[in-house]
Amino acid sequence: MGADGDSGDAGDTCAADRGGNATIHIRCSNGSKFSVQTSLDSTVEVFKAVVAGSCDVPAEQQRLIYKGRILKDDQTLASYGASWTLTLIHLSFIVV
To answer: I need a labelling partner for 30 at 20 to 30 A (CA). Which of 7, 52, 72, 94 fits?
Structure first.
């Protein structure tokens, strides 16, 4: 897992890069943190695949939570109000 967002409040922010993507900071239920780049127009299903590439949790075993809401695969990140600033998504593991 990457070290991005490991210091201070950096894990609670989201910044746009020049390519139109957002840097989304993820906090896992085990306490680890990392960041990924994606478009806010991406579906949650696509975003889970991006997250799976940065951690050891397969997309089908991820539960992503933003502002207390479990994100559904067919919705976009933007549909949940994720923005270029102050976006932190929590990742919990689904044991199958």
So the answer is: 72
Rounded Cα distance between 38 and 92, Å, is 19
User: Tokens representing 39?
Assistant: 């478009």
pLDDT band with cut points at 50, 70 and 90 for residue 85: low
Q: For residues 87 and 35, what is the distance between their CA atoms, to the nearest angstrom?
A: 11
In CATH, 8-93 is 3.40.50.300: no
Report the pLDDT value the prediction gives residue 2, as an integer from 0 to 100.
42
- At 21 the pLDDT is 83
Coil, strand or helix at 89:
strand
The string over 64-88, giving b where at least 16 C-beta atoms fall within 10 Å of a residue's C-beta and e elsewhere, is bebeeeebeeeebbeebebeeeebb
